[in-house]
Amino acid sequence: MERDSVQRTNYPEDVAAPSELSVENALSLAIHLHRTGEFDDAEVLYKRILDAAPDHPDTLQFLGVLSHQRGDSDAAIGLIEKSITLNPGQPDRYNNLGNVLLELDRLAEATDAYQQAITLQPEHADAYNNLGAVLRAQGRLDEASVAYLRAIELDPEHVDAHNNFGNLLSSRGRVKEAVAYYCKAITLMPNHPQSRKLLGVAYYTIGQIDAAAQVFHQWLQEEPDNPIAHHMYAACSGKDVPQRASDAYIESTFDVFAASFDAKLGKLGYRAPELVAAALERACAAPDRALSVLDAGCGTGLCGTLIAPYACRIVGVDLSLGMLQRARSRNIYDELVKIELQDYLENHAEEFDAIISADTLVYFGALDGVFDAACHALKPRSLLVFTVEEAHDADAGYRINPHGRYSHERNYVCESMRRAGFDVEAIDTAELRMEGGKPVGGLVVTGRKLAL
């Protein structure tokens, strides 16, 4: 189940860079930097304000929000809770605290925070929307419906509430009704990418692939350079299908939900990291921290924590800066690199004893190039362990699916690995996750680079 959208952090309106830096003006500048993505400078300025005024509640709150965005959620909670203790009458602080707790899957606490915001401000539409998200995450769907509809009643132009209620209806099989809410969200904010994407998802979920393609085609006509529109139109129309997902698509897709990635996948029963780790365990001797390992498409570092007992060195590679920031907070990786995977592999000859990859190659169609590059980066007799989604009866041995990921036939995977110089030691079927209430079938593959 896809986690619903919570309303963004509540910042003061009309923040501009001040001419004189009193504490309040310095805070205005810090918020301005924060909102425009200048996180390093914002953090420095927040901390300088707290040096001068250690109990300044607004500064504590926004430094907490920034800390969460940068992967230190424990610090974030402490800072926001301190700001609430100092000034408990501000509903937005409870709302922001709830957002952090929700993304950490601390659902009961998040529920309490949103309800406290509503108690302080009964017409807080954002808090009702966010309460709906946390109730849905707990399976309390009837209550979530009430919360979403209350948010829409309070703010009929609340885009996230329309999207989220559409998500809930779709999850209950009421997809045609969901489409109406997605359409309403698009009319409220025509260029809101999440609305367009969700409308396309709703159509292909009910088997109306052509209608989904039309949604993405219209989006692409209005934003010809939008990587998500481009990729999803190709996925649903079968036209101009790329050999792999573009760098821009990967970055745009994963940066958006890096902070909530782990919690979302937990709700989908996501198993790929555990399957990869188990395959590595079967292929290796007892763990002795002896391997130099590349985590290819490391994401937030879910694999890294599992394979650490085998590694003396772990390098993580990913295109999403947001994902890498979350991975860094785990303190497992010796190096984290923002780069396209194949480019990295081609420039690191015979450096690794093992390359692992959980659900990264689902963004590649043809696999020959990435397998050649992986073979180049591995030492002789070293391991490549990965997952892909399994295809059947794909003309080219692989195909792109309406959800935007590629799936691959077993025989195609084996032949591609052999051409690249691998011996296929194991290829097992497995359920990788749930999607749309159904298991996603995949392959867990272990190959070993042939000796020279």
Task: Summarize this entry quickly.
This protein has about 450 residues and is of the alpha/beta class. It has helices at about 25-35, 40-50, 55-70, 75-85, 90-105, 105-120, 125-135, 140-155, 160-170, 175-190, 195-205, 210-220, 225-235, 245-255, 260-265, 270-285, 300-305, 320-330, 340-345, 370-375, 410-420; strands at about 290-295, 310-320, 335-340, 350-355, 380-390, 400, 405-410, 420-435, 440-450.
The run of helices and strands is: HHHHHHHHHHHHHHHHEHEHEHEHEEEHEE
What fold name stands as the CATH topology of the domain at 261-449? Rossmann fold
Structural class computed from helices and strand pairing? alpha/beta
CA radius of gyration is 23 Å
Q: Compute the separation of the termini in Å.
A: 46 Å
The first-level CATH class name of the domain at 261-449: Alpha Beta
**Fraction of helical residues:** 40-55%
Total number of helical segments? 21
What does the main sheet amount to?
9 strands, mixed
Mean pLDDT: 89
**Unreliable residue runs:** 13-20
Relevant CATH superfamily of the domain at 261-449: Vaccinia Virus protein VP39
Number of E-state strands: 9
Percent of residues in beta strands? 15-25%
Give the overall form.
globular
Q: Give me the CATH architecture of the domain at 261-449, please.
A: 3-Layer(aba) Sandwich
